[in-house]
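Objective 1b of the project was to move from sequence-level analysis to a structural picture of ligand recognition. The entry below was assembled by the postdoctoral researcher (A.K.) and checked by the PI before modelling. It contains the amino acid sequence of the target and the SMILES of the bound compound, flavin-adenine dinucleotide.
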Amino acid sequence: MIAPFCDARGIPYARQVLLAEHTTFRIGGPADFAVMPRNPEEMGQVLSFLNRNNMRYFILGKGSDILAHDKGYRGVLVLTEGMKALSAEGDRIYAEAGCSMASVSNLALREGLQGLEFLHGIPGSIGGGIFMNAGAYGSEIGTFVESVTWADRNGVLHTTPGSELSFSYRHSFFTESGGVVCSVVLRCSHGNPVEIKEKMQDLDGRRREKQPLEYPSAGSAFKRPEGYFAGKLIEDSGLKGFSVGDAWVSEKHAGFIVNKGNATSEDVHRLIDHVTSVVYQKFGVTLEPEVRFLDE
Ligand SMILES: Cc1cc2nc3c(=O)[nH]c(=O)nc-3n(C[C@H](O)[C@H](O)[C@H](O)COP(=O)(O)OP(=O)(O)OC[C@H]3O[C@@H](n4cnc5c(N)ncnc54)[C@H](O)[C@@H]3O)c2cc1C
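Corresponding predicted holo structure:
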């Protein structure tokens, strides 16, 4: 967590915040400022202030899908980590944007609610999960969304039903609109806690076995191209273990690019370009990055 200063409204902020400390890739220089609203109303105030003053900003959850620039970010990071109210009532879960997906999944387990076991191993925030429509093992978060409360550029809060949020593969209304997820209501069904726990453990075990969790990364570097698996195309191109500087195509799972020490964003970009071009030459398939680039 950043050392908090306080602006006139009491909303914590800090100067010179190192992106390498806020991204799972452990890459990225300093951002000029970071601000940390603590609830949806404060998020609205922050967005209204930033837009009125034409300030450049970027919403950052747990930074688990981000490749930040080595020189950092000239603008304001809006961190959601302070927004972490989480509760359950009946078959519904209320979570503010900064809650980790693991904490939402753990609450579902405690409440005997099934369906969210797949969230347990995804290292992002629920806000980032809604933005990306995070998914794994045949499930996607969008399926469980009853409604999302979000802020527009003017800081005005809206509540929209999940059915109107255009969820599809790694896409939602938020990937297009600039709307900021503030909180979400998820609807689950009641289940057997023993079975829910077993499923969580099974999925976590499959992750540990297949994914290079021992190294910093941003998860799958590429989206799944229609009809293919990115990891298999990369492996079949002979690129498993290929590296640029400290950025490596994982030997354990070729769909992951890992940071084996001091990889720079430049290393990762060059590796992504190389992989994309070799896979295209061999198979005629264009890989699209899943990781999102935060430029200086
Ligand atoms: C080891 C590992 C395994 C992974 N496995 C999976 C997996 O199985 N399935 C999967 O889908 N993903 C996976 N990921 C990727 C990542 O965890 C997800 O994409 C996650 O949804 C990103 O959440 P975040 O909070 O980290 O978002 P960030 O990385 O902080 O941000 C990602 C994007 O979301 C935007 N954003 C974040 N919060 C908000 C908000 N509140 N409102 C609006 N926009 C917002 C950001 O501006 C950015 O554009 C994995 C990553 C790692 C490192």
